[in-house]
Amino acid sequence: MRGLTLLVGLFSLLAQGSLASDYFSSITGLEDLLHTEQYLTRELRSKVNAIKTALQHLESELSSIEKEHTMAASDTENYLTNPVNVYRLMKRLHTDWSLMEGRVQLMAEEMNFNATREYGLSYPSQEDVEGAALALVRLQSTYKLDVAQVAQGILNGVKYGSDMSWQDCFELGQQLFEMEDYNNTKVWLRESMERLRRQTSHASSHLAPTSGPDTVTLNKMEATAKSLFQLGDFDTAFELSQRVLQFDPKRIRNWHLGDKGTAPPEDIDDVYLPKHSDSYSLSQEFAKYEKVCRGEVHPISRQELRCRYSRGNHPYRFLAPLKLEEHSLDPYVATFHDMLSPLKISQLREMAVPRMHRSTVNPLPGGQLKKSAFRVSKNAWLAYESHPTMVGMLRDLKDATGLDTTFCEQLQVANYGVGGHYEPHWDFFRDPNHYPAEEGNRIATAIFYLSEVEQGGATAFPFLDIAVKPQLGNVLFWYNLHRSLDKDYRTKHAGCPVLKGSKWIGNVWIHEVTQTFARPCDVFRDHEVSLEYEIIK
């Protein structure tokens, strides 16, 4: 339930006066937002209870006065000739009504509740809200989720949380509209209107009052409908405007009448491409990556892959052999099972959390590291020598692969929250200026899985049709370079979006220097086989 509930919750919290903390990029920090809403809920509940008590007292006194007037109406002369009644009438008008007025004013003061100015609370920024919206859209696209089911809290057929209200769907649709993601705007606005229709229909059939849109929401609906109409989306605009008129028939859609018959823009197909979509996300290669994430393709290999016990490179490993699962022999991709205990994983995560920052992507030569929607996560860098657990990780990795781990970058612990991902990329550096010449390029990568992921979050190799699901304590290993030390473009890989859960990994990048005897080159260069994968198709 937590995954979808937290995502939806990001749309309802306001961002005024907050510090940018990239809450949307990782599960770390989201608990702060949950605590904020818990605090606000308690405060508002206290005020509501106090107001309820005051209203009950007022209701009792008002009923008593109404009863007096009912008696007086039946025989006014008889009522007013009773000295007790006269005294009580005088007292009420002189004293009681002033007291009741004071109580009403006190209730008004109690109603003064400002959720945006509570000191010391955590609030998401506008970037967080947009990031959460994009996460839902990313999950829809990658896993082909039905919007109606997502709104019901159903992810890939599993019910996790409560339903989204029609207001939730409308706010998400409007958020996507402001981000110029018009295709997804349409589906969420239509889902919102369908939910509103069902709500009003249900209320009418049970003769119950229904909570329709307030004036502010009606204004938003009308403005959005007008913009969609001008963009040529007549169907969605008409549906929105019909709902507006249903709740406020006095509104006259002059914009509709005046613009009726206006032809849609000639470049309507371009208009409806999401603003955040780039050419790569529309490529065949990206579509293949999404298929691998969904598990729609499987490796068709002529290689003899095995799951076996391995002694690795340690002479005494026969006493405790490694559990090795081969995914590909060329390029070499394999999983070593049960390499890290839950206790050691807990230690790593505890060390990483205080140091977590938004992940960045490699810049152009001479540029600075930048945040990007290409990679949505948080990470921390830890020095191996700072804790025995990390020293042991390098030792075990050396035993398993035979590689010299002297020249490794610091351990990078990363966390991907709901919708977190890392689009297809290579781990080797394409520009020699990005790595120290004395250490060489990244010859190999090892990913330590520090958590399980309920749905999504696999490590995908689109060119190899491989998707490896995170399993606690396992290590995924592969070579980024050919034996000739040329770049192996077949190793392009990605972190599939996390659909449900939280993905924690530890990245180890081993450099090529000192690997001459551990992985000697062949007589001839062996790089030609991967050159065709360099160009995006």
Describe the structure.
With 537 residues, this protein is of the alpha+beta class. The protein folds into three domains: 27-111; 126-201 and 213-254, Serine Threonine Protein Phosphatase 5, Tetratricopeptide repeat; 301-362 and 369-533, q2cbj1_9rhob like domain (Jelly Rolls). 42% of the residues lie in helices and 15% in strands. The strands form four sheets. Strands 3-4-5-15-11-18-9-8-6 form a nine-stranded antiparallel β-sheet, with helices on one face. Strands 7-10-16-13-14 form a five-stranded antiparallel β-sheet, with helices on one face. A hairpin with a 2-residue loop joins β4 and β5.
Short description:
One of its GO terms (cellular component) is endoplasmic reticulum lumen. The chain has 537 residues and is an alpha+beta fold. It has helices at 2-12, 30-74, 76-80, 83-110, 126-143, 147-151, 166-178, 182-205, 215-231, 234-247, 254-259, 268-271, 284-294, 342-352, 388-401; strands at residues 154-155, 158-159, 307-310, 322-329, 332-337, 357-358, 375-376, 378-382, 411-416, 421-425, 442-449, 455-456, 459-461, 466-468, 475-479, 493-495, 498-500, 503-511.
